[in-house]
Write a structure and sequence with these properties.
single chain; transmembrane helix; PH domain-containing protein; transmembrane; 7 strands; membrane; 2 domains; 161 residues
């Protein structure tokens, strides 16, 4: 919803600039607003996905796939947070459970931790979910397009204005 509101504001700024012969300024304002849209979209789409073979942690920039067999335990702080502790001594934190007022009230980190731990018990009994931990740059097309348009509008705004 907040991304849609930012896009509506962007369109209104562009229309206002075209109506008042201030195309350059409106393009530069759009170039400033679009990275905000990208940031909101990237942060808003962070999540933890429980798959049959492992856990996928989608953070703002990177996506981690961690097989259940690689997870030693699940931990977190008293104020929220979710961290997967790995066999190799490393860890993968979930930005989506970084601690918030919602987490404090509804205990979403605790529920996610319980769900992952219950899957780990099944895996330990059945030896499922083998594989390697994979870290990739996460695609978020709506955010990536917004950043690309911001660069285009900035260049156009400098030439027009």
């Amino acid at each position: 919803m907040s991304v849609a509101l930012l896009f509506v504001m962007l369109i209104l700024v562009m229309m206002r600039g075209l109506a008042t012969d201030a195309e350059g300024e409106s393009l530069l304002v759009a170039a400033v607003m679009l990275p905000t849209v990208a940031l909101v979209r990237r942060v808003g789409s962070c999540r933890v996905v429980l798959l049959p073979g492992g856990v996928r942690v989608d953070n703002a920039l990177f996506s981690h796939f961690v097989p259940y067999s690689s997870v030693v335990g699940v931990s977190g702080g008293s104020h929220g947070g979710l961290v997967l502790d790995l066999k190799d001594g490393g860890s993968v934190g979930a930005f989506a459970f970084g601690g918030s007022l919602v987490d404090l009230i509804f205990k979403t980190s605790d529920r996610a931790r319980f769900e992952i731990e219950s899957r780990l018990e099944v895996v330990r009994r059945g030896h499922l979910g083998d594989g390697e931990t994979v870290k990739r740059i996460r695609r978020c097309w709506s955010a990536d397009v917004a950043v690309f348009l911001a660069v285009v509008f900035a260049i156009l705004g400098l030439f027009v204005g």
